[in-house]
Amino acid sequence: MSKASGSVDQSKFIIWLKIMTVRIERNGKIGIVTVGNPPVNALSRSVRQGLLDAAEEFDRDPDISIVLLTCAGRTFIAGADISEFDRPPVEPHLPDVVRRIETAEKPWIAAIHGAALGGGLELALGCAWRLAAASASLGFPEVNLGLVPGAGGCARAPRLIGAEQALELVTSGRPVSALKARELGLVDAVVEGDFRKGLLSFARAKLDEKRPIILSETSIEYVAPIDWNAKENSIKKKARGAIAPLRALECIKAAVTVPVNDALDIERETFLELRESAQSRALRHVFFAERNALKPDDLKGAIQKPVKTVGVVGAGTMGTGIACCLRDAGFQVVLLERDRETLDAGLKHIQSIYEAAAKRGRMTEAAVLARMAGVRGVLSADGMADTDLVIEAVFEDLDLKRSIFKEISDHCHEDTILATNTSYLDSDLIFEGVTNQDRTLGLHFCSPANVMKLVEVVPTRGTSRKTAATGYALVRALRKIPVRSGICDGFIGNRLLKILRLQAEKLLLAGAKASEIDSAMKAYGLAMGPFEAQDLAGLDVAAMQRAAARERRETVFAPISDRLVEEGRLGQKSRAGWYDYPDGSRLPNPSNHVQQIVAEEQARCATGTLPAGLALAEAVILPMVNEAAQILEEGVASSASDIDLVMIHGYGHPRWRGGLLFDAEQNGLDDTVRKLEILNAAGLADGPCERLKAAAKMGHF
Ligand code: T1G
């Protein structure tokens, strides 16, 4: 294949590609098929063709009695090639490949290391036997992409592990470990130690063994009656608007109620239908956006500073949450507080987070002890002397943060990276006067930090490429999603959250009830409505930001919130906020008193009414889209997909919508502009910004 000739013969290239992605060898009576399609051996067209050819080849070879399906690299097949889903499906189709292997003359053994996911597990179900390395994981993550298994997973899995277990595996999308897979009967054996050696001896042992009945030709063993309605209700509740898990339930139900070929057809049709759906496009967008966010182009090849020990300043809610995720990722933590009592309370809180996890069976007592052993509490800045990176997570006060970094920088190494977890303040102002500005950075975690996946990475004027790259590496090590944000009030997430709250308050003044607005936003897919969320977080948090904004002489419109805070209605913690929480219950009760305050403010500040034809959720979301376009225009965010990730991983926006801007594009930006003009005319929102109008002309951001 000489490039020199200039013309690459297409068919020769396909054959070369096939040979490159699927290799076959012989080891005595054992045929070995190795898939090599880095990075995750996805079932691209050439891999599918290569597998078909391998089956033909070995079926014709009289010396071969059994075939081992293995993969090169760090994992078994991680599924179909997701990047192919934006194009029409091409032959050979995966169900045919699975069927060809399932009915091959010579039985196949799937040798699973790393992850066998989606189409990869379906292929393994087409094999006569499955063998897994002890560290392997197996699963059907298709629902996370808005899909269902489309190559026999829904029809074959119940025949192997029973309907109940298959239902859980396919509708949850969560993988299981190799040991759990053996327990379920999903794999026949687990190999501890040398996997290659283990799989050859397994194959030799199977040479003389009777081949199991072909899975798709087995009848379903007795099925304990399944309460499908109850299953549907619990899946619907968890799915919160996502449709794929419910469609997956239908496919499993078909697998145990109709003949197998009909069940195979039903799942294939469902897969092909969902492949074209808005939800699957949105979830595929998020899948690739998450991976792109982990490694921004401009930091490619940047040197990182090695980080072993991280200092955390402040043992409050944020500091302890950050300390937990650092310990979970294996970093040593030095926790600094100003007095023993606060420090002990912080250490106790970290302990309680781990003990709660142990109670839920998510970690052992020994692991709890090991986690705590890696947290050292200190009461003075010299305790930070040996840290590689320090994250400050104290109260939102500029002078306090400045004095802390002054003190810290006097005690730690010159190149210790200094990061602030401020969620609103200008990090350039925080680090003023600190030596070596190139080691400064903003790392804005969301609360609770040990749960929320978003970290806004906020470079300062001085941040060096090395410091930025180290910040990204730290966030990746914490298995979180880093999104770069420029410096502005509230960065990306909190700036958009302010619009959400502003619009919610305007709708109250326009005559809607808090519970109606909360229900509308939950129907949109938010985990919690804006008023319930404020009552949980505490109304005083936002009040402090409003006070800071007013000090900066900014116009802040929050007449009702201000009055609630004045009256001490701070939310659940004061048993009253936007709702009442009698006897400390966490259930929100609509409050007549709040309704009274709303009526008084309605009389004072005339706001329009919600125009006909516009939904409550639109009156909240569309102004956020407008603000997000402004954020893009200002360069505070590098891309629309970054904003999508911020809202999904930091602010509970539904993944299946693909994020704020992807969803707006799907719904048509012209429509967004038109409706914003209506909201503006009704006095309920600013008019569409130029950036949004420009995007509407292009049809995308
Ligand atoms: N297709 C295409 N590219 C993929 C891919 C896939 N299935 N999986 C990963 N990649 C790319 C990814 O974009 C990244 O690229 C690189 O591989 C490393 O991934 C018919 C319908 C396997 C657990 O949903 O969950 O089968 O950014 O950074 O953290 O029924 O990747 O380097 O250019 O995530 O080690 C079902 C998706 C498909 C699994 C590894 N399968 N993948 O995690 O690496 S649908 C999935 C993962 C299907 C059939 C159906 C993870 C991983 P780049 P990474 P990682």
Index terms:
alpha/beta, eight-stranded mixed β-sheet, 701 residues, globular, 19 strands
Task: Annotate the secondary structure layout.
Elements: H1 10-21, E1 22-27, E2 30-35, H2 45-60, E3 66-71, H3 94-102, E4 108-112, E5 115-117, H4 119-126, E6 129-133, E7 137-139, H5 153-161, H6 163-172, E8 176-177, H7 178-184, E9 189-191, H8 195-207, H9 228-239, H10 244-257, H11 260-275, H12 278-294, E10 309-313, H13 317-328, E11 332-336, H14 340-359, H15 365-373, E12 375-378, E13 389-392, H16 398-411, E14 417-420, H17 427-430, E15 440-445, E16 454-459, H18 465-477, E17 481-484, H19 493-509, H20 514-524, H21 530-537, H22 539-551, H23 559-566, E18 579-580, E19 589-590, H24 592-604, H25 616-634, H26 640-650, H27 660-667, H28 669-681, H29 690-698
Helix pairs in contact: 1-2, 2-3, 3-4, 4-5, 5-6, 5-10, 6-10, 9-10, 10-11, 12-26, 13-14, 14-15, 19-25, 23-24, 25-28, 25-29, 28-29
Bound molecules: (2S,3S)-3-hydroxy-2-methylbutanoyl-COA (T1G).
